[in-house]
Amino acid sequence: MSKPHDNEQSPQKPGKEMSRRQFLTYTLGGASAFMFVGPAIPMVRFAVDPLLQKKTEGKYIKVVEANKITNDPQEFTFEITQIDGWYESKPTLIAWISKDQQGNIFALSPVCKHLGCTVDWNNNPKLKDQYFCPCHGAHYTREGKQLAVARAPLDEYKVKVENGFVYLGDIIPNQHVQ
Ligand code: FES
């Protein structure tokens, strides 16, 4: 006489083992996903790559020999390479470079802090030794401190002097005035 359970399959415990149907579903699903997503990865990378690349941040540009810098601000222009997504441009920037009271070289941005026009040095006979903005009359001291109209000092460039040359880097808030 056989035992009562000899020919019966032991019942599956729910949630413990995968059925054949589930196994096939997962396997085919995974293979299909790989087939569709795999070739797309290089395309996605190509599309977003320029966005991941570093821009000009942290780069210094050689602008002028250090011995040409005087106490009076002088205007210098220089070109940078700017990468914005897929678009590369070479804008020309302006810096007003001079020495501070300690003899350190510093460089101001000419962008007026009122609404972004361009300031000039000593261009208003009534405002001697000042930067003046012709748009709405903002003016600034030699160190870039705002005296009227604008509510902030002129920004400055990061400066590095190396092997007798002045190099300019990123634009930062003015470090010479409060
Ligand atoms: S933009 Fe310079 S004063 Fe207005």
Question: What is the distance, rounded to the nearest whole angstrom, between the alpha carbons of the first and last residues?
Answer: 102 Å
| Total of helices | 1
Strand elements, count: 12
SS-based structural class? alpha+beta
What does the overall shape look like? elongated
What portion of residues is helical? 10-25%
For the CA atoms, what is the radius of gyration?
33 Å
Largest sheet: 6 strands, antiparallel
Which distinct ligands sit in these coordinates? FE2/S2 (inorganic) cluster
- SSE string, helices as H and strands as E: HEEEEEEEEEEEE
Strands in their spatial order, largest beta sheet: 1-12-11-6-5-2
Sequence stretches where pLDDT stays below 50 over 5 or more residues: 1-8
Q: Taking all residues together, what is the mean pLDDT?
A: 84
| Beta-strand content estimate | 25-35%
Cofactor: [2Fe-2S] cluster
Domain Rieske: 97-168
Protein name: Ubiquinol-cytochrome c reductase iron-sulfur subunit
Transmembrane segments: 23-44
